[in-house]
Amino acid sequence: MSGIVLSASVRQNLLSLQSTASLLATTQNDLATGNKVNSALDNPTEYFTAQGLNNRASDISNLLDGIGNGVQVLQAANTGITSLQSLVASAQSIASQVLQSPTGYVPKSTVSSSAALGGTAANLVDGVTIKSGDVLAIAATGGGTATSITFGANESLAQLNTALAANNLSASLDSSNHLVITTTNDAASSTIGAVTYTNTGGGTVTFGAVAAPVADPNSQTTRANLVAQYNNVLTQINTTAQDSSFNGINLLNGDTLKLVFNETGRSTLNITGVTFNATGLGLTPLTAGTDFLDNNSANKALTALTAASTTLRTEASALGSNLSIVQIRQDFNKNLINVLQTGASNLTLADTNEEAANSQALSTRQSIAVSALALANQSQASVLQLLR
Asked: Is the domain of 205 the same as that of 241?
């Protein structure tokens, strides 16, 4: 081969043809792969920059599964709270039935004056049976406030009832004009506290022994059934709280949810769970024959249920806020992945329209180069004709 001598024009055209063929091969490879940068040899800066962007997008994409699970954990807890609120409302309805049920004791605890009053409902003090300045003291009844009443010159029944109300007591005059003090429905199961009447003014009225309340069997059976219904609701509260889990995490049973939002692990959200069984909500089982005996016990349960309902609403608000944050970060990560992948594509993807035009141009150039090479060889062909 070293003995072959090519003219300068032939060599120049041959080099041009080789360059065009190389460019055409590169263009055809770009069209086949869809990339203008296929390796670090094509463009080191763009290749490694795109690789870094794609790697970050891949890392963030891997976090989306955990974030998606976190959304479901929050949804499960929120569903549980909705059910718990319904159960608490059911328990409130049961306790309210106690308030609407007949009094569980007939008669209730009473204490009466030993003699008829000479006064009237508008003025109990008549100067004979009751004189101004006598003192009526009654110990605390059914959790009420102990009462001490000093009769004035114009003491009325309405005024007496106002003073007795805080001690769960009410007063009335019977058909014989005796003053009768009775427990209210709130404390129907209680016996009136010790009664002390000091007749310092010289009146003739005294008070007899306090009569204990007498339970009504039918009413107590009804109330015992309500206790059973109430306790059944508490059982359902316990099981509902235990079942409000997703993928082994239960925010209503004391678990904590940790979510990671970026590939470095520096962007996180910790959601601390609560214990929302009956005990955690401040609700305790009731005992038939002890609870729901009167309005006070029903009101006590209603107070606890109202507090539980408030606690549930507060936690529902907190869960809703956290769910909103997680969903916002989930959408942000999805959009960020798109931005990163688009950026990487802009660095490496080929413009098919441009590459197709280049291919057509290079094919034309290649044809021209072949023709030029043929022309360059014509001089040698002429010499060959002379030799013939």
From this structure: no
